[in-house]
Amino acid sequence: MARTRLTAEREAELYAAVLDLLREVGYDGLTMDAVAARTHSSKATLYRQWGSKPELVARALRNNKPVSPGQIDTGSLRGDFHAMAARNDYCQMEKDSALMRGLFHTVHENPDLRQALRELLIEPEMEGLGELLRRAVDRGEIAADNPALYYVTHMLVGAIVARQLIEDRPVDQDFLVSYLDAVVLPALGV
Amino acid sequence: MARTRLTAEREAELYAAVLDLLREVGYDGLTMDAVAARTHSSKATLYRQWGSKPELVARALRNNKPVSPGQIDTGSLRGDFHAMAARNDYCQMEKDSALMRGLFHTVHENPDLRQALRELLIEPEMEGLGELLRRAVDRGEIAADNPALYYVTHMLVGAIVARQLIEDRPVDQDFLVSYLDAVVLPALGV
Prior knowledge:
2 copies of one chain form a homodimer.
Chain A: H1 8-29, H2 32-39, H3 43-50, H4 53-62, H5 77-86, H6 89-95, H7 97-109, H8 111-138, H9 152-165, H10 173-187
Helix pairs in contact in A: 1-2, 1-4, 1-7, 4-8, 5-10, 7-8, 9-10
């Protein structure tokens, strides 16, 4: 059966409604019925388009990340990192830190959501970051055998979680740029 | 009123029972009645000794960390870091990763618990880590103005969270030593 494409605008509208519902009722309380009602669409359309609730939620969260790190290419690693920090998803994440903390727990209890987030959100981001780092290795900015290459995601996750959890402060562009310059670039020998 | 000291053994027994209950019923389900019943003590004793449920839980969690990083003093930063990684709290944390993930969410919803954990667990650990780092600065191993000094906790939290969340693998001593050598020491210029 042919899958009718939604317009990008309509899709963004649907994703925004899903994130609103997530904030209001949480993942467990979010139903396809509620999404259908809120967006004036039919449940059949939602299932045809997204297959399942975990996939719909993962795609709605991914829609906050308009640019993959792999698409960033300023010619230097520092430039790429700073452009990454300037992507508006991190500002979104700041507004959504309560949402993210709630999801952290939900993900633990919902293997289907965990798998959808891993496939649709985390893996594409990590692949994009991998591309960005490979280009830096090819340019000779990072030694190919630098052991910190494997841990770039760990360093970034740490910045985001510790900032919110320990410092109770928002993850904004200034913080990310400062952390990238103080920690990630020196660890990579740049 | 004089506060009767419990023996260290009895205290450890009580803390172990609190952690067992946390795993079984979660923070919200854990009552002082249940702790009293499980440990054959009176509720009056529990309140006299710990004041409140958040304080009891924070002290039980802290009891997993027998050595403060400030007490570690091998003579070199690398040695101190490796000794830190060998403390058995991280192995405990591995066994307790489900517990920790549950708490992450609970902490968000319970300001009293958040404050108790901050005062009794996080701040003493961070102060200890600060002492350990200050000694390295005094020895001339780290430049006093190295901007990564401010981010050591962020780097460590990242290692622990990303290892469990993204890699779905345990935080063990080998992982921590490898991360400290690949990331934290180079970022500090060591």
